């Protein structure tokens, strides 16, 4: 549009008069004017996105456009998320991992102990660290293509930031397997001016008197989902779906390699995986920032 600008300067008249004379719509003029140099800018955006995807390539290549946009904003790029999405589609960088369906482990064996009331009632948000913790068990498969072998994971999550406070991996989902991360998480809590609530489903481990005794020893409330209502523990279900989508895209021959991959991913999730809900912070970064602001 430099020709129109030159005509405006030569005849010293308004841009509207020049556009009318050359029969160019105002919208076309301003769109083209503001789009000048766009190809060069696209190259910069493409390079920035590629560098972000390579920083922790095993995991960051599974970042979606929203998370990529957050990182770019942190780096000083003023770029719209729609533009990032368009470029990622053009480059073939969009993640397809979340389209996969995963099998859910069910630890419910009927009423074998005491069923606690649902104190959470799907109120997963909280502005207080360690006020609401959730736990669940999920299975991860390995071995031959049939993937007949499996190991189990139980994490304890803080709903304030999504941080995994403790977890355990075992070949058998026993009571002792479930109690280990619970005790580790509760023993590590600081002194709080409020009581913590631990929410689970109605799995046999959580109905057991030893689980309930551990909660009582730590002056902690127990909460349980309603029977066959997975949405009552949706935060934990979402975590398992995310974990399996991002790390189970490769085949594991044995339990050792799978357990190592699971441990590494949880470390990445806690410390380096940014979340849009946490304003572009990882769970640990968000919790540390909250502690600094409260100090």
From TrEMBL:
InterPro entries, per the entry: HTH-like_dom, Integrase_cat-core, RNaseH-like_sf, RNaseH_sf, Transpos_IS3, Transposase_IS3/IS150/IS904
Gene3D superfamilies from the UniProt entry: Ribonuclease H-like superfamily/Ribonuclease H
An annotated Gene Ontology molecular function: nucleic acid binding
GO BP: DNA integration
Source superkingdom: Bacteria
Domain Integrase catalytic as annotated: residue spans: 125-291
Function: Involved in the transposition of the insertion sequence.
Protein name: Integrase catalytic domain-containing protein
């Amino acid at each position: 549009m430099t020709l129109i600008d030159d005509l405006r300067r030569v005849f010293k008249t308004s841009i509207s008069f020049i556009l009318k004379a050359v029969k160019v719509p105002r919208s076309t003029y301003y769109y083209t004017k503001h789009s000048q140099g766009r190809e060069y800018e696209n190259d910069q955006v493409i390079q920035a996105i590629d560098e972000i995807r390579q920083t922790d390539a095993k995991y960051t290549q599974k970042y979606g456009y929203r998370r990529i946009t957050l990182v770019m904003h942190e780096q000083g790029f003023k770029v719209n998320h729609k533009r990032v999405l368009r470029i990622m589609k053009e480059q073939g960088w969009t993640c397809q991992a979340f389209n996969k369906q995963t099998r859910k482990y069910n630890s419910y064996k009927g009423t074998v102990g005491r069923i606690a009331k649902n104190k959470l009632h799907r109120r997963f948000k909280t502005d207080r660290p360690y006020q609401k913790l959730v736990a669940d068990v999920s299975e991860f498969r390995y071995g031959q293509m049939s993937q007949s072998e499996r190991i189990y994971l139980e994490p304890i999550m803080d709903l304030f930031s999504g941080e995994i406070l403790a977890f355990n991996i075992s070949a058998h989902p026993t009571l002792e397997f479930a109690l280990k991360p619970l005790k580790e998480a509760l023993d590590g809590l600081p002194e709080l001016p409020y009581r913590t609530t631990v929410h689970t489903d109605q799995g046999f481990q959580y109905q057991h008197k030893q689980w309930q005794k551990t909660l009582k020893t730590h002056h902690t409330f127990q909460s349980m989902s309603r029977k066959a209502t997975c949405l009552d523990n949706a935060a934990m279900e979402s975590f398992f779906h995310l974990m399996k989508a991002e790390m189970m895209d490769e085949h594991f021959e044995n339990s050792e390699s799978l357990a190592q991959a699971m441990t590494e991913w949880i470390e990445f999730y806690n410390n380096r995986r940014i979340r849009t809900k946490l304003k572009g912070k990882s769970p640990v970064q968000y919790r540390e920032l909250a502690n600094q602001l409260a100090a």
